[in-house]
Amino acid sequence: MFDFDLTLADSSSGIVECTRYALRTLGVTEVESGRIRSVIGLTLHAMFRTLTGNGEPESADEFARLFVERADEVMVSSTQIYREVPDLFEQLRGQGINVAIVSSKFRYRIEAILDAAQLRPLVDVI
Fold first, then answer.
1. Which of 10, 26, 75, 85, by CA, is between 20 and 30 Å from 103?
2. 104 near 39, Cβ under 8 Å?
């Protein structure tokens, strides 16, 4: 079982871009890349609360909607699978070991990234 972001792939540049897009659209001043990177792995609502201090559910919902809107455009192309992953997955498959990915990232996004890297056939469960 593997997490996805920062375990199998680096999608941090896409996450930073999508976060900035959503925050900028909501009128939030620029947030440092390092601050955004420090909250990768949290849910989108938790990212919003942590980065802005705003606990309003409606604002977090709009942030999440805007983040996903931008992610649909850039996330697959901006995500880099770590170079060791294809060989690791092949070795596990060769040993009869199933591979599962557990992540808060949307399943369809992980599937698209794996498809682009031609790794989806080597993953049994997402």
1. 26
2. no
